[in-house]
Design a protein that fits this description.
This protein is 23% helix and 25% strand. By secondary structure, the protein is of the alpha+beta class. The N terminus is likely disordered.
């Protein structure tokens, strides 16, 4: 009886729907016509009531509101509007769910809409509700996949990066140089205190270039990794790369990657967060999933009033697949992107890798030159920075009038970009996906220079300071040109009445026994520095309160503070603070004291543990089995390992025909290598040069690399290629490293087997020897016991902060100890 009554109500409501304008989008109508009876169709239900965010933005601009206040007001307006207006529709959907006509319901608030999976009759019924404005397809989305990083352009750029003999890059990439990033770093803008986010395939949270920069590893996120890692599909709690091509890890590396890994990121001082919602294997991702992920981006802790942990920029390398028709190019359909920017997050998209065929959606959206910002790709390794052949070009007709608009807005390095991949290694990749994080990093540097700039101002600064390439003015290949990070941060400084930065950021390591020098720049435009307010607040360990050390004027806008010398075993932390005459207070990091600089105490040791090549034969202690042999033929004639083409190398296969056949397995092993204990303060890496052409359709074959419990498969290559593997998990062990090749081919094919030309095992870690432990009673770590320490002790009376005798409280016994060590 329940099902009958529901079916009757569906028929009545559907009949009523015929008396009003059709609210169902044409593409959805086509899907409904082709659907099997009862088949669920994914759709987005937009409500009439939408938050008036433009009014909120105008009020915030008039108030010159902070970034945090901007976020709080916009998120609360969006959330409250959706909550109040969706009640009637959700109540009407309940019987449809009970009948099975509606299998999924997901209320959204970043745009006032509801995502559903519903039968044809259910969609008709929903369309009849008076609160519904439009129903559209909830289209599938996919990553803007990288193109093959092969060909002469890729090799030219790979060779342009200086490498050591093991293939490890020894300097920053050409892309960072092209963008004038090192010059911006020299002014103190490394992204310190800023946050970068992305929607992608996941990130390898243990990668040396990324691990220390994940927000979830900071004390403020203790117990809440979900504030920095969004995985609604498998609900993991630690960042993981889910894509075989390491798409998310590679793109994040170009945004923030750095020491102790390679210097690959534009903003290595920034922190990162990530929503793993793209390219998740067999799990279909739709636009509503991206909307939900962006809701998390603008409100990570789920508290609309907090404004906590909101990123400065979110870059996106996804779009609706080409050929999937959706009609709307209007602001309602894509308003969730505008609302995310209204909440303070700079949004940008990869233009796509379809070349002259045009841009993907939503990168093709051209409501204005700020909606939606799309990024093309250049080859920074070739003079003149030619636009990449694959880089999607405009114009776009996705405009309010339908007239063509120039696209993309900006272009950045995207050919043969070396960046991080899962497993601790590095690889080349090409695509507008590789270009977009470079621009995101520049946006983070701009926000460091002037933290409260609105997203539209950040975009405009990037456009106004870009280097014009190609035809004069904005064009359909480069847009406004190629970002200039130095000019961009200088322009951002001019926007700010009062600014504070720490040139070079903070050191990752400080030597024991030597005072710490902290250099700062204070920009005074509309506001002057309040005398005595510029300080570095420091404490030698988290158990002690902060003490202030003055930033002393040196010259121009430069200041310096001298902090007490740390010692081995201490855990110092500090932050800079200054106040302008208009009441502006700046801190570095931006959310200090919640986030502080925490350098490790010790010296960085870079040690080559083992290296070998096969130019002089099989090195001592090496062993082989199967078809492994040393040869000087069969290899490719191009090297991407930063050196000459190998003249002799280890090869698995028959050299006469340069192939392998039959069922084979064999290993190439080094002698045991002693790996030091780096105690989480370092990384051990094996880097080798190899080539492989192993896979043949219908058969199983291929090479692997392994050492102890660390194992990985080796991909096919087009030339000699460098591969890096993180062996840190094996610290303290003595293990051989081994390459294995296997095949079940039952007759010969002209496929080259696995080749290895050289290997190097390195360790980078922190060693500490020196410095004096604190004198009992020296509570501020300045090396003497005096009135400053007595003031700290008296301020901590009754708490544990001044406890010197270990009884858990600060009292008269501690004063006696302090006075007994009076300097």
């Amino acid at each position: 009886m329940v099902v009958t009554s529901v079916c009757l109500s569906l028929a009545l409501v559907a009949g009523a729907a015929n008396s009003k304008p059709d609210l169902i989008d044409g593409d959805l109508r086509h899907m409904m016509a082709a659907a099997a009876p009862g088949e669920p169709i994914r759709a987005l239900v937009f409500l009439h009531t939408q938050a008036d965010i433009n009014a909120v933005k105008s009020a915030l601009a008039a108030e010159r509101a902070s970034l945090r206040e901007r976020n709080r007001r916009v998120v609360m307006e969006l959330a409250s509007t959706a909550q109040a207006s969706q009640v009637g529709v959700l109540n009407a959907l309940a019987p449809l769910q009970q009948s099975g006509a509606l299998t999924e319901v997901r209320p959204l608030w970043l745009v006032n809409a509801i995502a559903v999976a519903a039968s044809v009759n259910a969609i008709e019924a929903i369309a009849a509700h008076p609160d519904v404005r439009r129903i559209t397809v909830d289209p599938p989305i996919e990553a803007t996949a990288p193109v093959q990083a092969g060909g002469p352009d890729a090799v030219a750029q790979a060779m342009a990066v200086p490498h050591d003999e093991g293939g490890v890059a020894t300097t920053i990439t050409p892309g960072l140089t092209a963008l004038q990033v090192p010059a911006a770093w020299a002014l103190g803008y490394t992204g310190t205190g800023r946050i970068i986010a992305s929607l992608d395939s996941g990130v390898d949270g243990a990668h040396p270039a990324l691990a220390s920069r994940w927000l979830g590893s900071t004390p403020a996120y203790a117990g809440h990794p979900e504030w920095a890692w969004f995985d609604p599909i498998t609900n993991t709690s630690f960042p993981t790369e889910f894509a075989a091509n390491s798409h998310g890890s590679h793109t994040m590396g170009s945004a923030i990657g750095g020491a102790p890994g390679e210097q690959i990121g534009v903003a290595p001082g920034a922190m990162w967060m990530h929503a793993a919602v793209i390219d998740r294997g067999t799990v279909e991702q739709t636009l509503s999933g991206a909307i939900a992920a962006l809701q998390w981006i603008v409100n990570p802790d789920g508290n609309p009033a907090s404004g906590f942990g909101v990123p400065d920029v979110c870059f996106n390398s996804w779009g609706i697949p080409n050929g999937f028709g959706i009609a709307p190019c209007d602001d309602l359909f894509w308003s969730f992107l505008d609302n995310a920017e209204a909440a303070g997050v700079v949004i940008m998209f990869a233009a796509g890798n379809e070349g002259a065929a045009g841009l993907r959606r939503p990168a093709d959206r051209a409501t204005s030159h700020l909606r939606t910002v799309a990024v093309g790709a250049i080859n920074a390794g070739v003079e003149g920075w030619p636009i990449a052949d694959f880089s999607s070009r405009g114009p776009s007709a996705c405009t309010p009038s339908g007239l063509p608009a120039v696209k993309p807005e900006i272009a950045a390095p995207g050919v043969a970009i070396r960046s991080s991949v899962q497993g601790g290694g590095y690889a080349l990749a090409s695509g507008t996906s590789m270009a977009t994080p470079h621009v995101a990093g520049v946006a983070a540097l701009i926000r460091q220079a002037c933290p409260d700039l609105a997203p539209e101002v950040v975009h405009q600064i990037i456009f106004d300071t870009a280097v014009d390439v190609g035809p004069p003015g904005k064009d359909n290949s480069y847009g406004f040109g190629v970002p200039d990070a130095l000019a961009a941060v200088q322009a951002a400084e001019a926007f700010c009445d009062f600014g504070l930065s720490v040139p070079g950021g903070a050191p990752d390591f400080v030597p024991p026994g030597q005072p710490i020098k902290v250099h700062a720049r204070i920009v005074q435009n509309g506001e002057s520095l309040v005398p005595g307010s510029a300080k570095v607040r420091y404490r030698p360990s988290p158990s002690l309160p902060f003490s202030g050390y003055p930033l002393v004027h040196v010259e121009g806008d430069l200041y310096v503070a001298t902090l007490p010398a740390p010692y081995c075993g201490s855990t110092p932390e500090y932050f800079a603070i200054a106040e302008g005459s208009g009441g502006t207070i700046r801190t570095v990091p931006a959310d200090a004291p919640n986030t502080t600089f925490k350098p490790k105490v010790g010296e960085v040791v870079s040690e080559v543990l083992y290296e070998a090549n096969f130019s002089g034969g099989l090195p001592p202690g090496w062993t082989t089995s199967g078809l492994w042999k040393l040869v000087s033929q069969c290899g490719p004639l191009v090297s991407g390992c930063g050196g000459a083409i190998p003249t002799q190398f280890a090869y698995y296969g028959e050299t006469l025909f340069c192939s392998y056949d039959g069922i084979h397995s064999g290993t190439l092993s080094s002698p045991p290598i002693a790996l030091p204990a780096v105690r989480s303060l370092g990384v051990i890496t094996a880097t080798f040069c190899y080539h492989q052409q192993a896979l043949f359709p219908g058969f199983m074959s291929g090479g692997t690399f392994g050492a102890g419990s660390v194992q990985c498969a080796l991909a096919n290559t087009n030339w000699w290629q460098s591969k890096s593997i993180d062996l840190t998990a094996l610290e303290g062990q003595t293990v051989p490293i081994t390459w294995s090749f296997f095949s079940n081919l039952d007759f010969a094919f002209f496929n080259l087997g696995l080749m290895v030309s050289s290997v190097k095992v390195t360790a980078v870690y922190v060693a500490c020897d020196g410095g004096s432990p604190p004198i009992p009673g020296d509570l501020n770590g300045d090396g003497v016991v005096n009135g400053a320490d007595l003031a700290i002790l008296l301020g901590a009376w009754g708490t544990s902060l001044g406890d010197l005798n270990g009884d858990g409280t600060t009292n008269g016994a501690d004063i006696a100890i302090l006075l007994g060590n009076w300097s």
